[in-house]
Design goal:
Structural class of chain A: mainly alpha
Strand order of the largest sheet of chain B: 1-3-2-4-5
Strand content of chain A: 5-15%
CATH architecture of the largest domain in chain A: Alpha-Beta Complex
Number of domains of chain A: 3
Order of helices and strands of chain A: HEHHHEHHEEE
Oligomer: heterodimer
CATH architecture of chain B: 3-Layer(aba) Sandwich
Number of strands of chain A: 5
Structural class of chain B: alpha+beta
CATH class of chain B: Alpha Beta
Number of strands of chain B: 5
CATH superfamily of the largest domain in chain A: Ferredoxin thioredoxin reductase catalytic beta subunit
Shape of chain B: globular
CATH class of the largest domain in chain A: Alpha Beta
Strand content of chain B: 15-25%
Low-confidence stretches of chain B: none
Radius of gyration of chain A: 19 Å
Largest sheet of chain A: 3 strands, antiparallel
Strand order of the largest sheet of chain A: 4-3-5
Number of domains of chain B: 1
Distance between the termini of chain A: 49 Å
Number of helices of chain B: 3
Low-confidence stretches of chain A: 130-134
Largest interface: A-B, 24 and 23 residues
Mean pLDDT of chain B: 95
């Protein structure tokens, strides 16, 4: 079981690496860290405390903290969705902390819900007959940053390159071809 | 579905909060209502069964919201997404 202190250290170290700050309100921060700890205990990974996870890693990958949306959200609003990571001006009290809109695309949320719905349907169908339903699948690809060469194997390229901070538009797909003809 | 009722002297409006047990914004919303002595009900959606979760999501969407937490439903008609203190105050006439 992961300790709250470990979760805190991990967040502190990540904030430092990326030039962010943690939520300046000690109680707020503690609640967020406790939420992360609880999610890690439940799912095996620290998914966002303010979003619903499915428990399926492939479907939750984009909301594992630090989530895919943190960098663009902190840049635009001064805070990430749950407000764990904030910008300097928020810590200094120059910008006040407000709830921000959800950046996670609707189709990603819907896909997670679809799997939940499938499970419910399967459960219902299991008592009557075996059904073969198409499973929602996450298709991963190799992407590289054309600016610095960073390579990532994910469904989508990151909003911002974690290495050189290039924008998503700088990412291109690496086409992989396996030739069996020899 | 486990709907928890929180007592309060101010029961002028019917307040339902869809929340997550891990969410700090949800906790603040609950605390705000409690501090203002508002009677309300809440459901921690992450602790619900999948069936109930689906029902709640449909309920939020039917009212024109999207599954984001906290979602407050006031008097069965007004929906507020997120802990928007300003909007909550206005809706509850605080």
């Amino acid at each position: 079981m992961i300790s709250l202190e470990k979760v805190r250290q991990r967040a502190e170290s990540d904030a430092k690496t990326y030039g962010y700050y943690l939520n300046p309100d000690p109680e707020f921060l503690n609640d967020l860290l406790e939420g992360l700890r609880k999610n890690e205990e439940r799912y095996g990974y620290p998914s966002c405390p303010c979003r619903v996870a499915t428990g399926n890693l492939e479907l939750d990958r984009d909301i594992i903290c630090p989530c895919d949306y943190r960098d663009p959200d902190v840049a635009e609003f001064g805070t990430c969705y749950c407000a764990l990571y904030v910008r300097k001006d928020v810590v200094e009290g120059k910008t006040s902390l407000m709830p921000i809109p959800e950046r996670r695309p609707l189709e990603k949320q819907a896909r997670a819900y679809a799997v939940t719905a499938e499970k419910i349907a399967e459960k219902a169908a299991a008592t009557t007959a075996k059904t073969e339903q198409p499973r929602s699948e996450v298709r991963k690809k190799l992407w590289y940053c054309r600016q610095c060469g960073y390579v990532v194997y994910r469904e989508d390229p990151p909003y911002v390159c974690p290495i050189c901070k290039a924008k998503r538009e700088m990412f291109a797909e690496i086409a992989v071809r396996i030739d069996l003809a020899g | 579905m486990n709907v928890v009722k929180v007592a309060g002297k101010n029961n002028k409006h019917k307040v339902l909060v869809y929340a997550l047990s891990t969410c700090a914004w949800c906790k603040m919303a609950k605390k705000f209502l409690k501090d203002n002595d508002i009677e309300y009900e809440y459901v921690d959606v992450d602790l619900c069964s999948q069936e109930d979760h689906e029902k709640i999501r449909n309920d939020i969407e039917k009212r024109g919201g999207h599954a984001s937490f906290p979602t407050l439903i006031i008097d069965d008609k007004k929906l507020i997404t997120g802990f928007r203190k300003d909007l909550i105050k206005e809706a509850l006439e605080l």
